[in-house]
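[agent] plan:
  1. take the single chain provided in the ticket
  2. run structure prediction with default settings
  3. attach structure tokens to the ticket
  4. add a short note for the reviewer (M.T.)
[agent] executing step 1
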Amino acid sequence: MAHPLMPKATAVWLIDNTTLTFEQIAEFCGLHDLEIQALADGEVAPGMHGLDPVSRGELTMDEIERCQADPAAKLKMAKITTPQPKARSKGARYTPVSKRGDRPNAIAWLLKNYPELSDAQISKMIGTTKPTINAIRDRSHWNTPNIKPQNPVGLGLCSGADLEKIIAVARARVGKMHAPGAATAPDGVLPRFEVEPAAPAPEEPIAPKMKLPETPATELEPDVSVASVFGDAPTDGEANKDIDPQPI
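[agent] step 2 finished; step 3 output follows
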């Protein structure tokens, strides 16, 4: 249910000029019954001037008289016949005056790192015009020598989520893959990057096993005897030849 524009001032007028119940006034004004009681007692907003809802076209006298005759009835807002201001359509983003001098730097950064962005996307996100974007692109802007590309997120001209969204949309339109991270650069400047599908690594050929040539079995040399080291050793007979037999 719609409520009057200034509910407390309207409630004060209804309290002073009608015999409506507190419940009827509270429901019409969108307030609590206790707030209406406090307004009537002067405990809340003392000295507040009442606002006539009839003169403002929010209520009619016939509606007030109908509800005064029936305490259970509810007040209904009158149909507004006066022309109302139209809601402003969404246009370029509003940029504070203190940050408008940073817009050329942000535009230059976007044109340098993400040329796939359209002028309409940049204009809507930064809050600029297409002639300004073209002047920065063609280096015909009056302040071209002083323009330094800077991340619009670091400058506070847009949020990281908005930047990631338009980059993803632009790259999807041109068929490029998008890797998030453009808005998370700590220094406010991040070079342009693209992620291409990784090519499968080529399989390295397995080298065949080398077969060692078979070497002929060599005859084992005889054991080296003690005689070959210490000279000719005497045989058992020669060893006992010079020994005189002992009598038993």
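[agent] step 4 note for reviewer: The first helix runs from residue 7 to 17.
[agent] ticket updated
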